[in-house]
Amino acid sequence: MTLLTWDDSDTAEAAVLGRTAGQAPVIDLPAAQQAVADLLVALGRDPRSAHLRDTPRRVAGAYAELLTPAPFAMTTFPNDENYDELVLVTRIAFSSLCEHHLLPFSGVAHVGYLPGERIVGLSKLARVVRHFAGDMQVQERLTVQIADFLDESLRPRGVGVILDAEHLCMSLRGVQAVGARTVTSRLLGTLRDDPRSRQEFMALTTAASRAHGD
Ligand SMILES: Nc1nc2c(ncn2[C@@H]2O[C@H](COP(=O)(O)OP(=O)(O)OP(=O)(O)O)[C@@H](O)[C@H]2O)c(=O)[nH]1
Ligand SMILES: [Zn+2]
């Protein structure tokens, strides 16, 4: 479904993360609009009324937008200074769609890595989060996809990803656990295996969360 490409050569500076027409889920906008109109009817509403006339178009368009992340280049640079400590971007805001109820779950991501031969443009860490969030997801898969993509494209010594999110399907409806947060993580390489690195990553992400009352 998602195309992940990068150039492994020493001179590579950018890898493109996007979706090809052949692999992306096909979004049939007219069919989606009709389905929303049918849903309105099934919910006892009149989609021809002045208030709801444009709702099928809007809803179909909104889903298409939420499920079509923009491609971007995964720009990397040589790590000429051999920077070997943690690079960590905390509190990257994201929203995704829970695949069970098609309701949003949203929160923050903490993404870090221990550089190897290359470092990555910092904004790209947030773009990777946004990219994989632009799909129907469960939080566990989203966490793994972000970490594994960084591991494969950057070949760092370690990767750490923590997602902390609220699921509207759990707070607005159903169990109505308002304010409940779901925390998922994936640690790879040295960040998983070396206790000092792991503890530093956990301490810094916890501090970032506490500072903002997450
Ligand atoms: N593991 C996981 N579960 C999720 C995620 N998002 C939503 N869910 C859960 O998916 C489950 C779907 O369970 P079902 O029993 O089929 O659905 P339901 O009858 O609407 O369940 P309730 O939400 O308990 O009312 C629920 O427990 C949701 O909380 C996610 O990202 N990861
Ligand atoms: Zn859900």
From TrEMBL:
It is an enzyme of class 3 (hydrolase). It catalyses: GTP + H2O = 7,8-dihydroneopterin 3'-triphosphate + formate + H(+). Residues 33-204 form the GTP cyclohydrolase I domain. Its EC number is 3.5.4.16. The keyword Heme does not apply. The keyword GTP-binding applies. It comes from the Bacteria. Pfam families: GTP_cyclohydroI. Pathway: Cofactor biosynthesis; 7,8-dihydroneopterin triphosphate biosynthesis; 7,8-dihydroneopterin triphosphate from GTP: step 1/1. One of its GO terms (molecular function) is GTP cyclohydrolase I activity. Zn(2+) binds at residues 98, 101, 169. Keywords: GTP-binding, Hydrolase, Metal-binding, Nucleotide-binding, One-carbon metabolism, Zinc. Homopolymer. Belongs to the GTP cyclohydrolase I family. This is GTP cyclohydrolase 1.
